[in-house]
Amino acid sequence: LSQAYPLGQFLIFEAYNGRYRNTGYTYDTDNDLPHTVVSGQVDINFLPIIGLSVKIDVGVTAYVPGENGGIAGTVTYDVTRNEFDPAYSAQEDYQPGVPGIPMQLWRTQKDVNGDPVTYPGSGAVKQFGRSKTTGADMCERPDGLRGTNAVTDPSQDCKPYDYYVTESWTRPTGCMALDVYGNKLEGELALPEPPATIDYSHSDPTQPDCLEAPMNGVQVGGDGSVDGNYALASLIKADTLTFGDPENLEEVYANAQGDPALSDPMPSDDYVAEAVNPVDTVNSVSIDEPDMGGFSGVKTKRLYRFTDETSIDVMTGDTYVPQDGYTDGGDPEGPAWNLSTSQDNVRQDHNTFGAGTVAKCAGTMQTIVDDNEDLAGGGGSPYVGQTVPVCDA
C-alpha cells in the first residue's frame, strides 16, 4: 500500500537494543514545541492521526563494564506454535501478552564442571534466594515449592532476589488538544478538560485518560507498560527484605527495584527467571502434568500450559494441492509426506536471537511421548523419548 489511513488508536513505539540503556526521548509534533522526557523506558505510546506527524528521538548510552540491562521479556499467549524447542518460540504480532503473571528471579550454583546444579527429584535447575527472616544469602528453595508464589506466601521463608508482575497496558493521561497554531483547542466537549499543568510524559495516574479521538491530535507518552512485559533488574538487599512490610511484599519489591538504597545491581551471571502459573480457582482439582509448571509438590490445577516440545499446532487443518491437482507424480492427492524426525534438523545452537539471548529452559524434566495428534499427522516429533526441561523457568 502506498498510502493508508492510520488506525487512530494508541500504538506502541519500541526502541530497544541489548547493548544500550535508554535515557529518554524527545518528541516533536507539527503544532507544538519539542518536549523531552527523561526515562529509561523502551516502549512509548503514540496516537497517529491522519494529516499530522511526529518525530521521536530516543537517547541511549552504552552500558559500562560490569553494568547490564537485567533480564527483560514478555509472557505471551502462544496462539500459533511453530517451533519445536520452546526456547525459540517467537511471538507472532497477533499474539497477546499476558498481564498479571508473577515473575521471580532466583540465583544458581555451579558444580565442578561449571554447570548449574539441579534438584535430584525433578531435575530442574536449583533455585537459590534470600531468607525473609534472617536476610541470609543463597538459601535453597525447596523443590516442592517451585511453581508457587514465594512473595505472597508468608509461609515461605526463601524469597526471590527480584519480583515483577507482568504489566498491563495503561492509557496515557493528561493530554491537551491543540489547534493548528498550537493553541489550546476550545469547544470540543468530547474531550476531558486538560490539567492546568501539563505532564508531557503523560504518565500521571491522577490526570484524566487521553482519548483516542481525532480532535486530540497526535499524542505521545505513557508509562511504557505493555501487556505481558516484565523486567528483573536488581537484587533485593537483606535489610530491605527483613524489615520490609510483611503484609505487602509485592510493594516492597516494586519499590526496591532500581533503588540503590534498597537493592544491589544485578551482576552478570546465570539466573533462573520463573513464571508462576496462576491457580485455576474455578476448576480446583489435583493435576500432575509437568507442562502446567512447577509440580514437584504442589499439584493444583493451573490456568495455562507452558509451551513445550509437544505444543506444535501448525500441521493440521485444510490440505492444499496445486492448481488442477497436478503433482510431480501425477497423483491428484499429491505425494505422501512425513516430518523428518532427525535431530539434524532441530536448532540447538542457543546463539543470540533477535534483540537478546535465547535462554535455556530450566524447569522440571519430562520425557516427551508421542501423543500429539497434530504432530502425528506430520510423522511424529523428533523429541519423542527425550527428556527435556519444562519451560516455565
Explained architecture:
The two termini are 42 Å apart. The chain is globular, with a radius of gyration of 25 Å. The chain has three helices and 20 strands. The protein is mainly β and 393 residues long. A hairpin with a 5-residue loop joins strand 8 and strand 9. It has a three-stranded antiparallel sheet, with no helix packed on it.
Keywords:
mainly beta; 20 strands; 3-stranded antiparallel β-sheet; 3 helices; 393 residues; globular; 21% strand
Summarize the structure.
The chain has 393 residues and is mainly beta. The protein is built from three helices and 20 strands.
pLDDT averaged residue by residue: 87
Give Rg in angstroms.
25 Å
Cross-sheet strand order for the largest sheet: 1-4-12
Major sheet summary line: 3 strands, antiparallel
As residue ranges, the low-confidence spans are: 349-353
By DSSP, the count of extended strands is 20
| Helix coverage percent | under 10%
Kindly name the structural category: mainly beta
Taken in chain order, the helices and strands follow as EEEEEEEEEEEEEEHHEEEEEHE
Distance between the termini: 42 Å
Strand content: 15-25%
| Helical run tally | 3
| Shape label | globular
